[in-house]
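Hey, sorry to bother you again with one of my protein questions. A protein chain has come my way and I'm curious about its shape. I'm sending you its amino acid sequence along with the backbone structure tokens. I owe you a coffee for this, so here goes:
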Amino acid sequence: MIGAKTKICLVIGDPIEHSLSPLMHNVGYKALGIDDKFVFLGVRVKIEELKNIKTAIKTLKIRGVSCTMPHKVKIMKYLDEIEESAREIGAVNTVLNENQKLIGYNTDWIGAQKAIEKKTRIKGKRVGIIGAGGAAKAIVYGVKKKGGKIKVFNIDLKEAENLAKNFQVEIGSFKDLNELKNFDIIINATPLGMPPYQGISPLPKEVFSKHQVVMDAVYIPYKTKMLREAEKRGAKIIPGIEMLFWQGVAQFKLYTKRNPPLDAMRSALINYFKKS
């Protein structure tokens, strides 16, 4: 039973209604028999409201806050401490309230790294990443730690140049996307493919081949247009749900100090898409 001692965790973003984080975490709490000790909610927070976040977390004694678009970078200035990997990435997707001290982490890089390595080895592979925002920075960090050779493609070259300066990677514009036909791993880290852009792929289907692994950070729909087209051309695909799952597993450990029930949490996500 949820009561006055129950610790609250949240995911914040704008929009937020699509988030599957509450489903995954709450199923995990139930599987471990700690659903009286933790509850996980979703809250829409507009960008102009973010300035109130530090006061809100500390006043309400919120245990953990997961951040999605568009808050991963801007939330950093409201925290007491930033963990090393999050500081290097320049984005926070996880805030832990440890005795009223707000610590920012990034688990997106862990999610991306784990999802890719379940399909293929990263070391020595040519990896093309589309996008240069918060998700892209985390993916670049995770791929680089495993020895991938990275090139980032972005519509805004200035944004890509800033990323390149921090991580020493190659960059290209959207005019250069055809180059990706020569890459081993392709990753979309833009919103293209998710509602209201679900009918859009960032790449022409001719880029894909059976020699590639193609991942999307977008997880709704389960298979984006890009993934469907890549699969038709023989590529191995990694739906965004895999990155969501593994980053959520890392968050679960931080918030609860317990080992996550992997099977229960994964099944909850898969069953959601079977029903929808």
User: Anything to note?
Assistant: The CA atoms of residues 13 and 68 lie 5 Å apart. The radius of gyration is 18 Å. The chain has a mean pLDDT of 95.
